[in-house]
Amino acid sequence: MRETQMGREIAQQPQAVRDTLDALIPLRDRIAATYAGRRQVLFVARGSSDNAAIYGRYLLETHSGVLAGLVSPSVATHYGAKLDLSDALVVSVSQSGQTEEIVQTQQWAKDCGAATIAVANVPDSPLLAAADLGLLTQAGPELAVPATKTYVSQTVAMAVLGTALSGDPSAYDDELATIPDEIQRLLAERAGVPEAVAALRDSAYAVVSGRGLLMGTALETALKLEETCLRPVRGYSYADLRHGPISVVTGGMSAVLVSAADGPMSTPMIELAQDLDARGATTVGIGGNAQFADAVDVAVAGPRLTEALSPIASIVPAQLIVESLALSLGLDPDNPRGLAKVTATDPD
User: Fold this and answer.
1) Cys-Cys crosslink for 300: which of 50, 192, 229, 318, Cβ 3.0 to 4.6 Å?
2) Is 20 within a domain?
3) Euclidean distance between the first and the last CA atom of the chain, given in angstroms as a whole number
């Protein structure tokens, strides 16, 4: 297969993670100081950035004891709602730092009394400039339209944020330091990637599911499959899939399941794989443990990381699948049809 810009940027992720950790870990005290006196964290984002924010939300609530949620930007930009956010830290996440809707929503949050932190990959972007504290990720310029290294760098920022607001900020530092090498291993081995591409290439429809800390990874996988490979794909949480949509799963469909190797969601994901298999779907599993690998039709190796940090690297095998699948379908993964690098939404 030909070399792509997307592939080159996927390969740059070990260094992007290393550089982002080096840049952001020293800012933990400032993150904590910005949050001081607040009771909740609210995230503002769109697209891939929103999927990174979902990881941040779960990490804060499950490991830092901090109430977190997602803000709908239209509440600010279209409805102009007047809310009391004096107890909130609002974290705006944007690859470019210049998506106008996100910039406006951050200013709205400030006007409503919130403290603000911005996460972006472009120095001197308006989002970073206007925030109380800017977290500049270190992915470097990203030329392919699909977000890869910028997304992974955003998840690193979420991990730094989560640990900064925990009772023991350095508790995960040793494991964080292993992530670049884990990503490098996944890139070199590509275990299960060709088989996953073959399974998805012949499928007319696919669903992607995960739960808990891996929910954002599942939604990002679905987004990348849909926008880059131009296939109808739905991303569901495990619970949402169980509450009805699973009834339409039949033979000829594919299901991509994303799981961590440990944690309270590992067993339910195994049970979901078995259920989908019984309904005739072709199941592709990313990550998980040995029992999960045995339960799916195609097992794709994931990172050797605990559930708390697994989302930083679990997306990498999915990225490899998406790039290879797009090429096998005769598509250009660098410039998917109808997409632009900076998100544009409806004007006010």
Assistant:
1) 192
2) yes
3) 44
Instruction: Identify whether the C-beta of residue 178 lies closer than 8 Å to the C-beta of residue 305.
Output: yes
Locate tokens 């409503």: which residue? 112
Could you identify the residue written with the tokens 């060709």?
A: 194
Can you spell out the DSSP letters for 85-129? -TTEEEEEE-SSS--HHHHHHHHHHHHTT-EEEEEESSTT-HHHH
Q: Burial code of 84-96, b = ≥16 C-beta within 10 A, e = fewer? A: ebeebbbbbbbbb
| pLDDT, tens digit, 9 for 90 and up, residues 170-208 | 999 999 999 999 999 999 999 999 999 999 998 878 899
- 257 and 155 co-located in one domain: no
For 247, other C-beta atoms within 10 Å of its C-beta total: 10
Question: What is the reported pTM?
Answer: 0.95
Given a contact cutoff of 8 angstroms between Cβ atoms, the answer to whether 196 and 257 are in contact is no
Same-domain status, 146 and 67 = yes
pLDDT, one tens digit per residue, over 281-305 is 899 999 999 999 999 999 999 999 9
Parent domain of 49: 5-171
CA 231, 235, 241, 247: dihedral to nearest 10 degrees?
-10
- Structure tokens that stand for 25 in this block: 């870990």
Residue 336 belongs to some domain of the structure = no
Alpha carbon distance 325, 193 (integer Å): 10
148 and 14 in one domain?
A: yes
CATH code assigned at 123: 3.40.50.10490
Per-residue confidence (pLDDT) for residue 238, from 0 to 100: 67
* Cα separation, 224 vs 202, whole angstroms: 17
E strand map for the chain: 40-44, 67-70, 88-93, 115-120, 133-136, 205-210, 233-237, 253-259, 282-287, 298-300
Please name the residue that has the structure tokens 């998506």: 99
78's CB contacts (< 8 A; 6+ apart) are 346, 348
Side chain identity, residue 6: M
